[in-house]
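Long-time lurker. I teach an intro course on protein structure, and each term I like to show students one example going from raw sequence to a predicted 3D structure in token notation. This year I'd like something fresh instead of my usual example. Would anyone be willing to generate the tokens for the chain below so I can use it in lecture? Attribution to the forum is fine with me.
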Amino acid sequence: MSTRDKLLELLESSSGEYLSGEEIAEKLNISRTSVWKAVNSLKKDGYDIRSLHNKGYSLDANADILSEYGIRKFLNGKNKGLDFDIREEVTSTNALLKKRGDNGEKADLVMIAVKQTEGRGRFGRSFFSPSGTGLYMSILLRPVNTTVAEATMYTTMAAVAAMKAVEELTGCRPSIKWVNDLYMDNRKVCGILTEASVNMENGCIDYAVLGIGFNLYPPSGGFPEDIENKAGSILKYSRADSRNKLAAFFLNEFMEYYRSGSRSSYIDEYRAGSMVIGERVNVIMPDSEREAYVLDVDEECRLVVRYDDGSEEKLSNGEVSIRRIEG
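-- Reply from a regular --
Happy to contribute to a lecture. Here you go:
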């Protein structure tokens, strides 16, 4: 851990209290000059560190600061053993973890970014990932003897875990739009993307990367024009520790589902949280679009729809738009 990160952890553990430069230097076994440099480095990255003559340094107790120490405070059980790589800015957490996966990185590494410059969604779409207003996270998984079809259920697990994490943070439960989006007040607040590397010899995956992006706060200046009528945020204003709590709550829920391997533990909750069951939708495929009525989500997380001609289909790919919201 760098001097900067050690200082941040120390200030977080004493949030709201002042620590003198001498006290910090003694606790971290560094020079006063190193303390000063680390403080300035944190200030440059946007941390609200207050300095008072004869009192020292203090971190704003109400600040929403994303950090490994802050996340670990809210992790439970086995999740305390997760490894973290937290960065101020990346191209894409999924893209970087896929490279790490190709190079043999061990499982259960969590990468989180304050900002993504090339955030990605399904079908090659971009995911708006500005600094300081969202939570952008990917997890490297190495399941044993898992097929691609089985790995697609990680998206379902993640949707339920995200739904429960947001409810734990805010007291309000979002809805799931098949297959990978969360909505609040009819606006998208979360997207999920699962990618995998396949072993062609046995048809199983070598690793999977589960990526999730939350719109936690409204971005400064608003959302871009192309999504301003569709995107929303989970909270209206910044709250202390919200990003740390949301990351930990999600990891606690997702890793429990992942380790259990039991679909019954999350499929029923996925159905209960669905915003498309019982709704008329447009089924969108690469070369067609049809109106349909959504009957159910089955055990494979396929969307069961009935078309206007009476025929039924179980959809395992594609996407839908809800006519009353998006049509």
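Some talking points for your students: The CA atoms of residues 182 and 214 lie 9 Å apart. The mean pLDDT is 91.
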